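LOG
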Amino acid sequence: MNKLMSSLLYVSLASFIGVIVTLIVNSSSPVLGPLIAVMFVTLALGVRGTATIFRSFSFTFWIFSAVTLAMFYPHFFLEVGDFKLSVLIVPLIQIIMFGMGTSLSVKDFLRVLKMPKGVAVGVALQYTVMPVVGISLALSFGFPPEIAAGVVLIGSSPGGVASNVMAYIANANLALSVTLTAVSTLLSPFLTPLLMQLLAGQFVPIVFTAMMWSIIKMIIIPIVLGVIFNHFWHGKVKWLDDAMPVLSMTGIAVIITIITAAGRDSLLAVGLLLVAAAVIHNAAGYVFGYFGARLARMDEKSCRAIAIEVGLQNAGMASGLAVAMGKIGTVGLAPAVFGPWMNITGSTLANYWRRKPVKKTLADQSEPVESAVNN
């Protein structure tokens, strides 16, 4: 680690001490917000110079910094003049989904024919475990109706766009991971509105066709365009290949920041409970995903892939649907909280599995889809 990176980590540590002192002396001090933001920014930069597991948390620390600023200074992230920043959310999600599409090919969808059992098990667990756990948590924690609907919404969403990267790091079955992401996403225009209508209809009105169309134009169309782009121009526009991961990460950070600012008051009221729900929901996805695949007699690498797919939800899509419902500050809160937490646990689990190599079996011989890690 070079001196600059070391210095940044020391600054982060000093900021952390400053945060603790400020909380003890005067928790309402105006310096608290900037101190926390500086702590996370310097930490995000500093860990890039390490060769440890913490390096993979750099993006998450950036998210925490942005969320801190949104909590302390929400007015900066709601409007610029007469322009409402929430208008940016759907276009940003479409860009992220286009980026996901550019990392896919027709072969990724045809792999369903080569690994039908793995896809069937993964999709079944995705659309049963997470929605059921979501409604159970929403009712158990007694959340206000619209926030409860957000918990169900994140559980009813398909696999997250970061799951393929995590599967690659975890030495999981990457081909299966990519295929599951693609298939669960293609099914989402039908299954997500259906699950929301059945489970969340008691909390907020759900219009099936309206939600289905929102998913199609926000998720499916950009992905299809991305796949078409990849088919005809793969490797020919290098600057776009390099830019898409950065654009995707920046877009996710902006989305979470805007939602946090919009839902600041509600988040202050139920924040700790919502974090607890996120922890339980996410952990349940990993546990049921892994052992559900084990019960189905899947090999170790496929079990890892399915666990990651089930545990990591598409928080971006859930956020966009909250915007489409006109409830960004309530329904959108669960996706905003779940997103950063899933990045933390996904990175940790992937790095843990990476250090536990598995023996090659016939089921592990699927061709890895290296391009997926560019998403």
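LOG (cont.) second protein
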Amino acid sequence: MPLVGPVEPPFLHVMTFNIRRRMTGHGWRRADRWRHRAPAVRALLESEQPAILGVQEAMPDQAAAVLAALGTRYRFVGRGHGPRGAGEGCPVFFDTHRLELLDWEQSALSDHPHAAGSRSWGNLIPRVVVTARFRDRRTGAALTALNTHLDPFSPRSRMRSVDVLRALVGRGPSILTGDLNAGETSRTLRALLDDGGLKDAWTAAARRVTASVGTFASYRPPRPTRPRIDWIVVTPDVQVERAGINTFRHRGVWPSDHLPVQAVVSVPVRRDTA
């Protein structure tokens, strides 16, 4: 039974999911191993079928596995964060029957956004944001989807990255998905949300279909005392019909050390006036 599953227009199902990058070697616990988790990821995505899915920490083979799980009508944009597109990435997957891709770009979160693999602001690992612009084939609405994974160790990097994200949102309906490595009361979230240009889909939702729990569960039962660090953030013109945090397990196996966050949104159709 899906938490959300496919939805009918004018609504869109959006999901953010840190898939946990594939680890090599024998030192990792069984719960971490991709071979152990991959069937659970597949079962989750086959059930939920979001129209927009922002994935974090996806190695190229994992991105291919996500695409296979979603089905033939899906595509994705985005590549690894390294200089030649290798390494983990933040791809945006989308349902081509519902959304027409207009254009997309991947930028480094650094002083050199067009230099793939560049690092700045104290983060040891390159950080990226993928920006994709769509037209809803069913409603005609235009929207922008952004997906990112902020640095877990450098507060300065997170704050500088927020400046970049806010600038990229620009005008028009936008949806930001990502593992922001920051909780509700953090400086990062205050910087992102406090001026009212963006809103947290969870708190803005007309209905929440699950309890609020920490999204970095680390393969354990989630706890309400832990922060949400995985986020769906939207511009004020995007209405949030419902939101939830998915605690799905497949045959007792957690798909990832993070829990997916999901929302059902509607995007306004803007009509030009003479």
